[in-house]
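Human: For the file, kindly provide a plain-text protein record giving the amino acid sequence and the backbone structure tokens, at your earliest convenience.
Assistant:
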Amino acid sequence: MILLEPNSFVLEHTLLERFNSDKPEVVDITLVDFDNVVYHLQSSAEQRTLLTLSVEMKYFKEAVEYGAHDILKREYGAYLVPSSNPQYQVALQFDLEKLPADKAELAKHVSMLKRNVLASSFYRAFEYWESQQEGAGPLMATHYRDNEAIYVQAQQDRVTVIFSTLFKEEVDRVLGKVFLQEFVDARRQASIQNAPQVVYSSREAPMEIRHLPGLRQDESAGYVSFVLFPRHFADLEARENTISQIQLFRDYLHYHIKCAKAYMHSRMRARVKEFLKVINRAKPDRTTGTSEKRTATGRYFRPQFRHSNSPTQQQQQQVEGDW
């Protein structure tokens, strides 16, 4: 089992290589992350010491409504620049000659950009809970994938997070249902009673989002609801950890589905090989007159075969014997 990190490891590694390079080079690298996020790292031949990172997020407009710009200014204010390409929504520029002493920490912090933008709706929901307003807060939807979304809504005593996911194959739907049911059953154990409550429903959407138009109500659609209580986000450290972990839920779910399918396929192939061995051992040993065999002592011998003669041949042999 792999451990997914909330940051982009390939982006962190690429940035750290450029930050530690003694001789700046012309760079034009495109990286792809989960949820169809694209990173474009570029530097020109005229200004090799200026490294520009452009990011494309299809859900950025929705995240801006929940305060993504404020988060970017707070986290990356010194490096934010206007994007020159309309394809990319966020752009950061680094002067390789004026980097801080801890370059590894900077690369790690920049690689958390996708996580920080996607966390905007969570921060807004937690702020609403802290205000202690009556009634439920606004329902915030982030369509981070095609036909899939994250819905976040705050209430006085909890915050509800709903994932809508699609299972394109029948096998994926069956395995996904088994895994998600295990989430529900595992919470009954005393050791993880503090975990968020998990509710899974297929086809029918939860009550919080049932009024929204365009929801899929077929067999391929599944909805997973997490109920976060104050113990999961009241403390600042717990809040950051909850946001980072819950964002990886969809990736972990489909990763385990693919691993389960690969394991079952490997077991089926192994079983077929065993069946073929049994069939090959069941074939009769067709020995011929010229075939050689070994005795118990290891010596070779050639078996002698006696063929029965017909009555006419026996009479002929008897007459020849009389002569």
